[in-house]
């Protein structure tokens, strides 16, 4: 039998965007339902996953390990000439979303990131200025709890300080990498993190457990620990887990959504949610996919919001090439996260010539897979010396980058591959341009210089330029006109009076910073647009 619900707001997606939005709209007293495709993970689940990872010496144990691949709608393949993105390991369905296991890097965009077309001739400009976005970034830092410092000379202007002080630099950053960068005229500075450096709103400060993905201390922000418990106590809010949205149904005139058609995953019971307003907060892949799956036979034949043919276009992600160093001396251990980064290459140089990128550095033993370099550098005459290997491992460090790309990807439906409910999965195809490849090439020039500055014994080649799939974005971009995007600057889908989007899919362009803080800022801004100042 079909279930029916009648609410004021139906928010689809229980990740950081949907949960923060619900927490702000709840003050209105209106009835809200949050529909989440994935399950809830308990503290016992976290402890079990952490224990299993320790027992099996698997630093990559994750929430997705026991999830049926069909539930994460894996991507299909394309021709050999294309580069196809696969996100099954990075995308995470569950109450809390990808923020359940993210590293908590809360870097802001720089002012130029929002005007790349005007300033540099590539990508797309945002329909918001940095000055318009900045107050919401600050509110998001306070809402989430971000530790950061004032030592970044490359950052765009702030209207106030971080809510918590930055984490202290590790031994490696303070004594080895920082001085090496300084010798090359690069300033290493603190990394903004959603990890408490001091007690914050009931959260413990970081205890350096080095298990950030599961964070036994609770210092790292996770929506299910911070916002969801409060929502669970509110009589006007319901969070439905293990419920999969199948399509949005348009009304007879095609100008409104009248229902969300969903299925309870565990017993396949149909669920119909009727609401005054609907918000898709399903992330960079599933948000555009749902707009495509909801195409009707009339006004929206090519998908919802696709009046100008922009749905699925300009898909984007970051590249993360890296190098490994044998520093030649002990590098110490990391807290579980990087304490020092540098925005030097976001603020210097000509972005017409080379993409911007952030530098991350850290001891490598418990982070990147360094087996190839470790064994090759300790092998003589085809004989691996275990003694040399044992001695060298504590001397290894990595230098990684987060690099912007032009963003010419295409997201579409693949009728040849279906999810467990029979709907086409998303296929994303991206080709690296010559411009995209210049940032890894720049890293290839920089790495030997840093190796010399720190007195390193060896430095590896730059890893292959590929997409790890951490930050899919851009396929439902905000714009002033449907000729340039899918939703307007207030995140309302073009052609539909009551449908809104909030995820990194609405980014017209993504600079070299992780998108999470900006997503949270847009969720707070949307809440105020929908309900006014009471939502703050």
Structural write-up:
The structure is a single chain. The protein is 24% helix and 19% strand. By secondary structure, the chain is α+β, with helices and mostly antiparallel strands. It has a single domain, classed as FAD/NAD(P)-binding domain (3-Layer(bba) Sandwich). A hairpin with a 5-residue loop joins strand 7 and strand 8. Helix 4 packs across helix 13. The longest helix is centred in the last third of the chain and has 17 residues.
What brief labels describe this structure?
13 helices, 536 residues, globular, alpha+beta, FAD/NAD(P)-binding domain, 7-stranded mixed β-sheet, 6-stranded antiparallel β-sheet
Largest sheet: 7 strands, mixed
- Name the average pLDDT: 90
CATH architecture: 3-Layer(bba) Sandwich
Give the CATH topology.
Answer: FAD/NAD(P)-binding domain
Which structural class matches the secondary elements?
A: alpha+beta
Per DSSP, what share of the residues sits in E-state strands of 2 or more residues?
Answer: 15-25%
Please outline what is shown here:
The protein has 536 residues and is of the alpha+beta class. It has 13 helices and 19 strands. Strand 1 (3-12), helix 1 (16-25) and strand 2 (32-35) form a beta-alpha-beta unit.
């Amino acid at each position: 039998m079909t279930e029916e619900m009648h609410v004021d707001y139906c928010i689809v997606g229980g990740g950081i965007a949907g949960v923060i939005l619900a927490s702000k709209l709840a003050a209105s007293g209106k009835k809200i339902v949050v529909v989440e495709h994935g399950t809830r993970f308990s503290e016992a689940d976290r402890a079990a996953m952490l224990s299993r990872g320790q027992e099996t010496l698997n630093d990559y144990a994750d929430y997705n390990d026991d999830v049926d691949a069909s539930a994460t709608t894996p991507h299909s393949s394309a021709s050999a000439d294309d580069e196809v993105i696969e996100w099954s390991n990075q995308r995470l369905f569950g109450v809390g979303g990808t923020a359940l296991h993210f590293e908590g890097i809360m870097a802001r965009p720089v002012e130029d990131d929002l005007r790349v077309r005007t300033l540099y001739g590539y990508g797309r400009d945002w329909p918001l200025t940095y000055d318009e976005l900045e107050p919401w970034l600050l509110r998001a830092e306070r809402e989430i709890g971000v530790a950061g410092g004032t030592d970044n000379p490359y950052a765009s202007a702030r209207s106030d300080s971080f809510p918590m002080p930055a984490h202290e630099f590790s031994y490696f950053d303070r004594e080895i990498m920082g001085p090496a960068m300084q010798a090359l005229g690069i300033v290493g500075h603190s990394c903004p993190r959603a990890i408490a450096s001091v007690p914050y709103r009931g959260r413990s400060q970081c205890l350096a457990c080095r298990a950030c993905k599961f964070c036994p201390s609770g210092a790292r922000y996770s929506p299910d620990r911070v916002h969801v418990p409060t929502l669970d106590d509110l009589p006007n809010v319901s969070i439905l887990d293990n419920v999969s949205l199948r399509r949005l149904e348009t009304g007879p005139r095609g100008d409104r959504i009248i229902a969300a058609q969903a299925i309870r995953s565990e017993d396949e019971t149909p669920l119909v949610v009727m609401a005054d307003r609907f918000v898709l907060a399903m992330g960079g892949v599933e948000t555009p996919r749902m707009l495509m799956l909801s195409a009707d036979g009339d006004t929206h034949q090519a998908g919802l919001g696709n009046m100008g043919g922009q749905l699925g276009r300009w898909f984007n992600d970051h590249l993360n090439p890296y190098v490994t160093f044998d520093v030649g001396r002990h590098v110490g251990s990391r807290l579980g996260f990087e304490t020092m980064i540098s925005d030097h290459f976001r603020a210097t140089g000509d972005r017409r010539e080379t993409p911007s990128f952030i530098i991350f550095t850290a001891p490598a033993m418990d982070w990147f897979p360094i087996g190839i370099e470790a064994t090759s550098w300790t092998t003589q005459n085809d004989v691996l010396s275990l003694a040399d290997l044992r001695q060298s491992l504590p001397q290894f460090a990595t230098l990684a980058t987060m690099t912007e790309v032009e963003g010419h990807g295409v997201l579409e439906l693949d009728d040849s591959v279906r999810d467990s409910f029979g709907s086409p999965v998303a296929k994303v195809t991206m080709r690296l341009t010559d411009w995209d490849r210049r940032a890894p090439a720049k890293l290839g020039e920089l790495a030997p210089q840093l190796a010399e500055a720190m007195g390193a014994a060896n430095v590896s080649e730059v890893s292959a330029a590929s997409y790890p799939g951490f930050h899919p974005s851009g396929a439902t971009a905000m714009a002033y006109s449907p000729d340039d995007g899918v939703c307007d600057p207030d995140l309302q889908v073009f052609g539909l009076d009551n449908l809104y989007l909030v995820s990194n899919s609405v980014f017209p362009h993504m600079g070299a910073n992780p998108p999470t803080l900006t997503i949270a800022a847009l969720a707070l801004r949307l809440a105020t647009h929908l309900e006014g100042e009471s939502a703050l």
